[in-house]
Design goal:
This protein has one domain. Helix content is about 50%, strand content about 15%. The chain contains four helices and five strands, in the order αβββαααββ. The strands form two sheets. Strands 1-2-3 form a three-stranded antiparallel beta sheet. A two-stranded antiparallel ribbon has the order 4-5. About 35% of the residues are buried. It holds the Pfam family DUF4383. Keywords: Membrane, Transmembrane, Transmembrane helix. It comes from Piscinibacter koreensis.
């Protein structure tokens, strides 16, 4: 899979997940004393704590992924940023004492979000840092895309 395809797929997934957070029935009611933004607070798919701000963040990452997928350079930058940001969010989910597991009360980052953010960061790190950029090679009037490792 190319890095551009990765950005496209992640963008679509983030858009779907962000939109699903606004659909009644996709989120199970949930409360948490440290979350101050309670609008839309619940467990998406009964597993992942979200609120309206969390859903908006997912939508923004989705749009960013779709835009980034338009170029190899943009896709690599997106993958690197997603890897770093989601690794940071995973670590924040482990720190309730500093109220970081709720992003200072704004966005829930605890529970199943921790392992999901770790998984997203690992996949994005592969496409952003491990996998080399996709190159377009032109030979005798034909164009093919190759990937170097």
């Amino acid at each position: 899979m190319t890095t551009q395809r990765f950005a496209l797929i992640f963008g679509i997934i983030f858009l779907v997940v962000g939109a699903a957070g606004f659909i009644p029935g996709m989120t199970v009611e949930h409360t948490h004393p440290d979350v101050r933004v309670t609008s839309g607070l619940g467990l998406e798919l009964g597993l992942f704590p979200v609120n309206v701000l969390h859903n908006i963040v997912h939508l923004l990452f989705g749009v960013w992924g779709l835009v980034a997928a338009r170029s190899a350079t943009g896709a690599v930058a997106y993958a690197k940023a997603v890897a770093i940001i989601y690794a940071l969010l995973m670590v924040m989910g482990f720190i309730p004492a500093l109220n970081l597991h709720t992003t200072f009360g704004l966005i829930p980052l605890y529970g199943n979000d921790i392992w999901l953010h770790a998984l997203l960061a690992a996949i994005a790190a592969y496409f952003g840092f491990v996998r080399r950029a996709d190159a377009t090679v032109s030979t005798a009037g034909t164009t093919r895309t190759t990937t170097t490792r």
